[in-house]
Design goal:
By secondary structure, this protein is of the alpha+beta class. The chain contains 8 helices and 5 strands. Strand 1 (33-37) and strand 2 (40-45) form a beta hairpin.
């Protein structure tokens, strides 16, 4: 157990504390290793991320990193947004839901462990298939250093920027986002690094 980091996270939780404590116990009961990643409790099998506990305003969730590969026999997995390719969540709005689903949750966790044991990987949509906003194309065409730096980023970092830029509805907002991100791209950093 990585209680040095997870305990303080749970102690300072203002919402969903009891729910996350029960989810933690369920994950640990399944023999996963507790870590603290992305500022949340993360549970791994042989150093592979299996499941993450996180909370939002209206719910807390168990996020399966390769949830798209699970059978979802109970049809409870949710794709967080249309752009999430691999992960799937099970959402909870009260403690009793977790208690009622404990056996099912363990079944999903054990299946996720089997996915890792089998070495299965999610076939992600290639970065080249993501649309590059016109505003960003123009900047890349006029700034060769930026173009090289962007192409040197990992595919995941490239996708992060492309999605962030394209989500803005107005051209002015896209331009502003691009301008703010240029220094980070030139430093080889991702959107959230």
């Amino acid at each position: 157990m990585n209680s040095k980091l997870v305990d303080p996270f749970l102690n300072r939780a203002k919402t969903w504390k009891e729910e996350m404590i029960v989810l933690r116990k369920i994950c640990l009961d399944c023999g996963l290793t507790e870590e603290y990643k992305w500022m949340h409790p993360c549970y791994t099998f042989q150093e592979k991320n299996v499941v993450l506990i996180h909370q939002f305003k209206n719910y807390c969730a168990l996020l399966f990193h390769k949830g798209v590969l699970l059978k979802d026999t109970n049809t409870i997995l949710i794709q967080q947004t249309e752009n999430v390719q691999s992960a799937r969540q099970i959402r909870f709005t009260d403690l009793q839901q977790i208690i009622d689903l404990e056996t099912v949750l363990k079944t999903y966790i054990y299946e996720a462990i089997e996915v890792e044991k089998a070495g299965l990987e999610v076939q992600l949509k290639p970065t080249a298939e993501f649309e590059i906003p016109e505003e960003f194309k123009k900047v890349l065409d006029t700034n060769s250093n930026l173009k090289i730096a962007f192409e040197d980023l990992t595919p995941g970092r490239q996708r992060g920027y492309l999605l962030f830029f394209s989500q803005a509805k107005q051209s002015k907002t896209r331009e502003s986002r691009i301008e703010k991100c240029i220094p980070a791209i030139l430093e080889g950093k991702g959107l959230k690094d």
